[in-house]
Structures are given as structure tokens and as C-alpha cells.
Amino acid sequence: MTFVFRCPELGITPGMETSSRWRPSLLPRAYAALVVGLRWIVVAGWAAAAIASVVYLPAVGQGGSDLEQLVSADNPAVRSELRSFDKFGFPLLSRVAVVQRDPNGLSRATQEEAVKRAQEVSDGTYGDTGPIRAAVPVMNTLGLFPGSAEDSTTIVTLLFTSPDVTFAGQVKAAERFVAAHYDAADAVVGITGSVPARVEQARIVTSSVSRLEIITVAAVFLIVAFAFRSFIAPLVALIVAGVATLLTLHVGGALALKLGVPVPQETQPLLVALLLGVVTDYVVFYLSAVRRSLAAGDSRLDAARSATARFTPIILTAGLTAAAGTGALIVAGSPAFRAFGPGMALAILIGVAVAVTLVPALLGILGAAAFWSPFRRRAEEAPVSAPAGGRWWARLLTRRWFALPVLLVCTAGLIVAALPLQHIKLGVSFVEALPPDRPARAAATAAETGFADGILSPTELLLEGNAVAGRQAELTKLQEALAHQPGVAAVLGPTTQGLPEGYDVFRSSDGTAARYLLILSDEPLGATAVQTLDRLHDNLPGLLSAAGLDGTQASLGGDTAVARVIVDQTTSDLGRIAIAALLANLLFLMLFLRALIAPIGLLVCSVLAIGATLGLTTWLFQDRLGADGLTFYVPFAAAVLLVALGSDYNIFGIGPAWREARTRPLREALALTLPHSARAIRTAAFTLAVSFGLLLIVPLRPFRELAFALSVGVLIDAFVVRSLLAPALLSVLGSTVAPEPVEPEPTPAPEPEPADLPPLSGRGAGTGAV
């Protein structure tokens, strides 16, 4: 049965069926016929694949999540720590600590017991300490620990374990040690350090994933249900996204184990949000096309085939572009980015593969039932019409005299929003990223109050040279100079007075090495501490020379030193990542549009949007909320994802206009296609922004930064760039960038492009044999 309707605004009258001046080529039509024809087999195949992946394949995160696996073995800070261990046979740095604190002062007996307990651990007296090989108590007794503002209120006992013990194993060993050898009189606040903080982050992420999935699914359902006025359409989106998510998490986990590439558990919430949002985007475009075809009178199977033939090339190109953009992270020198990029690319590729097969199959089965609603009868009784608002706005936006001011205003606004990027800072915080009420954060706060902010992750300065350990005067002079460096709260070293007898762990037995312990004034993995260590690294040659230690080799180790190398490596990766991602996106845009100038202009628009997004993120978290810099990977991960997703919207938004521009002027083609494509893009973008925004559910600062950056970036891209800036740019450029014209196919009547069609209604719409 042919479905007809009245829409006087568009010139559509009963008996007139919409037809296109452009038909897909033979290959897309053949593909559409195949997928729709095998619709039941396709659905059964994907269901079986999803079930098999859950039963037989490991999940993402089982390939390892320890920080060491994301830090390259040739990291200079790591090498410095290894050389220190070789020279002394005993590490100076610990990343797990037990904190005791009483603001009114710890008793002398408690302090003596802490020293005795640590000595017995180091001597092997206890038989139940497991992998803990040594313990060193550090007290804030005035005169013993320089830089402490309190006296005898806090004890930090540093625990040293075997290097092959996992992060979780180290924390469990510390917890057993505290349970067995401390009591209420010891005033234990908790266990903290970068390792417990890292483990606690993983626990938070794992416990948040289920809640994140449930809330995101509910949000996607409501958004798609509202957009299509249907309860079935969002179910289609969620089924497709669910299959893609299961396959990604398990196929990705299997590949991570097979290839030896760690995919941290912390990426799982981002993968879930990305897949739910991106796959829903693709489903929205298919649903919109099928609804329009059904409204034009096509049968259920014809509508599914038409939508598949028209949108599969666009979705395939958009998905490959997005995957190439995220996959560009593989060129990074940082192991963290190399692990992050392929996972995101794999997620998008699996999402595309599922979308371009499962969605056409489901829509071929459901037809008009995909748009069913309990309020359908009321909708049937209402007159069907299309609002003309989108059309007059599109016509106005494509007039050069109006487009030019819009172009200038949008560009200026985005540049102003990007200005805070000038003073962006990067850090690698673990403890400070935790919520204030988490045990590791509370214990860290207690330790920092009693000592200094850098007490839990001190920096080790290793000196190597012939007989350097015996050069007392020179070592004293260097220690004094280090203590006066900006950002250094205290220095312990070979010439520190008041250390317990036998505590000299600062000189090697062969005299060829000496080391210092530097406690920084700021959170040791924050941007300020990283900058402090940058200055110290630059000043070291001069400090050594002034102390009379010329020819001595110096190196820095510890968490801050590792963070410094990571931040420096990330910054140096920026050029490679940016060039690779932009070139990948430019190449796909050029191939899709078969043009040069327009893709460059569209990519510039995307760059402006990303700059504005990162500027706003810096302004909010760093300038307003007082964070000590953004988490090092957030700006780069957000930028790569936004470049990739922006190219998606480039293709969805400009693709139909470019196609129409082969048979009519570009500005006329934009005016014709913008109302529908802009509405579909806004619906898809709002869904994606909500998916990313719900990362706020994970109560960790990096996820909040990512949630803000990605959700705001997607909204800026859809509502400013694709709806205003890009059309205005193409309207100003006009015929200079228009595609080569082709002879239009003869049609029975000119196509009036439906702008914003209301929900499908009408009895018998889209009927057809199964």
C-alpha cells in the first residue's frame, strides 16, 4: 500500500511520491538488496557472535592495568631507579605507605614502636609480611625531618616489596601487615601512595561501569524515543549498540592478550560511552532515512533497501574516518597513547560493521513497526505537516551577505573560547584524582598535613662517579643548594644530621654512588611539581659545578620524574599525533567529496571547534576549579576523538548537499538538504554528548575532564560548526569549491525535500511480505 500525505508547505499533495534526482550506484544497491534479503540470517549471526564473545573471550582490562605497563622501559626515570637499586642493593623510593597521625601528638611509645616494627620487618623477624621486604619509618619530629611544620604528629612508614609484585598484590600485603601488627593505639589513618591510589582508581572504575551502562542506556532510550516519538526505535539503537559493545570489550580483550598490548580497565567506561553514542548516531541516520521513505509511500523492504543504499557509503566513510583518526595515536611515542588509540579505533570499526549490517536487517524486518508508539492513534488523527522554520533559516544562511557575518562571528567566538589554552598545564595525578572521602586520599591528606605535599612520592637524585660518596664537603654543599631550590620542601641525603644509627642508605658501599631524597612542596604528580622538576633538571649541571662535582653523572627517579618524562613525551607526541590524525581525516574527506579546498576548510572548522573545547576545559578545571593542571592524556584523547567525530558530522552534514550540488548550485543544494541533515545531526550529537557527559558518574577527575571536554566538544561541533560555521563557509566560497556537475537522471517530478518530518503515522504504512 502506498502511503501518501499532504504537506502544502513542501508542495506535496496526495498521489505525489517523493523521488530523488540522485540514485545510489550499483554496488550500494546490490549490498542493500543482499543485507535486507538475508535479514534473518544477519540478525541470528550477530546474536550468535555476541553470545560467543562473552562465553569464549576475555574482557578488556585482563591484559593488565599496572602503570609500569604504560611507561616505556627506557624511561630515564625508571632507568635511574634501576641503577640506584644495582648500586645500593636497596631501593630508596617506596610507592606504598602506612600513615599514622594524631594532631595532638603521637606518644613516644608509639614512635618507638614504629621504629622497632620497621626494623623487624627489614630483618625478616615477621613471617607473615609476604612480599614486603623492608620498611622505613619517617617521622615529622622537628630537627629530624626538615620542612615539617609540626612536631611528632605523623609517621609515614614506607613499605618496600619485591619488584615483580603487582599493584594489587602490594596493596593486599600492606593491608594484611596493618591488620596483623597495628592496633587502635597506633592511630593508623590508612594506606596510601601512588600504588594504592592507582588500585583504588581501578576499583572505582570497575564498580562504576554497571551503573554507567544502565544510566547511559536509559538516557539513549529517552532521547531516541523523543526524537522519533516511538518506543521501538530506541530499542533498535540499543540492540545494535549492545552487540557492538559486547564484541568490542571481548574481542579487544582477546587481542590485547594475544598481542601483548595492555588495555587498562580505566578505558572501559570511555569505550562504552563511545560505542553507545557513535552507534546510536549511525542508527539515527538509518532510522531517519527509513521513516522518510515510508512516508513517501515505499514498502517496508523498499524503504530498508533505499536507506541502506543511500547511507551505508556515508556511514562506512564516516566510520573509517573516525577509526583512522583515533588509530593515528599509534604513531605516538607514549605507551599510554599507543594502548589507547587502537582500542578506540577497534571500537569504532566494530560499531560500523554491526551498524551497516544489523540495522538494515532489523529495519527490513520491522518496517513501520520501528516507529510504533502507544500514542500512534492520536498521531494518525492529527494533520501531518512539516514546519518551515528550518527551510527559511537554511535559505537565509546560504545567502552570501548573511553567511559572511555568521562566518566571522562564529570564528571569532571559537577563537576567544580557545584563548585559555595559552596557559594549559599537564599533570599525572593519581591520589589527587580520587574523591576526598576515599581511604587512600584521606590517608594522603593526613600525611601531607604532617609533612609536605610531596612526602608520599619523593624524588630521588642519584649521583654516580669515582669515589663520589666520600666527597663530604661537596655533597654537603650540593644538599644545601638543593634545599634552596624553588618548590623543594626538604632534602634528605648523605650529610643529613640526626638520622638513626645504621640509617645511611645514601652512600653506596663501593663509594661510587650517592643519592638524595627530595620532598617537593606540591602534589608530586601535579603540573606544578612536574614544572619544579623541569627546572631542577635544567639547573642540575650548574648546581653540580658550583658544588665542585664536575664530571659526576646525575639522574632523577621517582613518581614525579616518571610523570615529567610522560608529560614531556606527550607534548612531543602532539605534533606527530596532530599531523597523523588531520591527514587521515583530510584524506577520507577528499576521497569522499572528491575535492581539495572544501575538505581543508571543513577541517579548519573542526580545529577551531577543538581549540574552543580545550580552551573551555582549561578555563573550567584549571582556572576556576583550581586543578593543578589537566590530566596529561585528556586534551590529546579528547582532541583526537573530536577530530574523528567531527569528520563524521562533516560527512553526514555536507555529504547530502555535495551530492545534490552535482545537479544544482551549491548554495541551493545546502538550502535544500540542511534542514533535514542538521536536525539528524543535532539529534545524534545530543545523544553522543549525553553518553560522554555521563562519564561524570565515574568519580575521578580525569573522567570528569573527559566528560566535559567530549560532551561540550560534540555540542559545539554539531550546533555551531555543522549547523552554522561550515554551511556559512561553503556558502561564502560558493562555486569555487562546488563539485563537478553531472547530468541529472530524468525524474517524474522534482524532488521536494522533506525538512523535518513528524513521526510516521497512517494505517498500513510500509506493509509488505516477510
How would you summarize this macromolecular structure in one to three sentences?
The chain is an alpha+beta fold and 770 residues long. The protein is built from 21 helices and ten strands. The strands form three sheets. It has a four-stranded antiparallel beta sheet with strand order 2-3-1-4, sandwiched between helices. A four-stranded antiparallel beta sheet has the order 7-8-6-9, sandwiched between helices. It has a two-stranded parallel sheet with strand order 5-10.
Describe this structure in words.
The chain is of the alpha+beta class and 770 residues long. The protein has three domains: 427 residues, no CATH class; 97 residues, Alpha-Beta Plaits (2-Layer Sandwich); 100 residues, Alpha-Beta Plaits (2-Layer Sandwich), CATH 3.30.70. Helix content is 59%, strand content 7%. It is built from 21 helices and ten strands. The N terminus and C terminus are likely disordered.
Highlighted features:
7% strand, 59% helix, 10 strands, Alpha-Beta Plaits, elongated, 770 residues
Q: What's the number of structural domains?
A: 3
Largest sheet strand order: 2-3-1-4
Summing up helix and strand content along with how strands pair, one would put the structural category as alpha+beta
> Terminal Cα separation, in Å?
15 Å
Low-confidence stretches: 1-21, 62-69, 377-389, 745-770
Query: What is the count of β-strands?
Result: 10
Largest sheet: 4 strands, antiparallel
User: Over the alpha carbons, how many angstroms does the gyration radius reach?
Assistant: 31 Å
Give the amount of beta strand, in percent.
5-15%
- Overall pLDDT: 80
**Total number of helical segments?**
21
Helix content: 55-70%
* Approximate shape: elongated
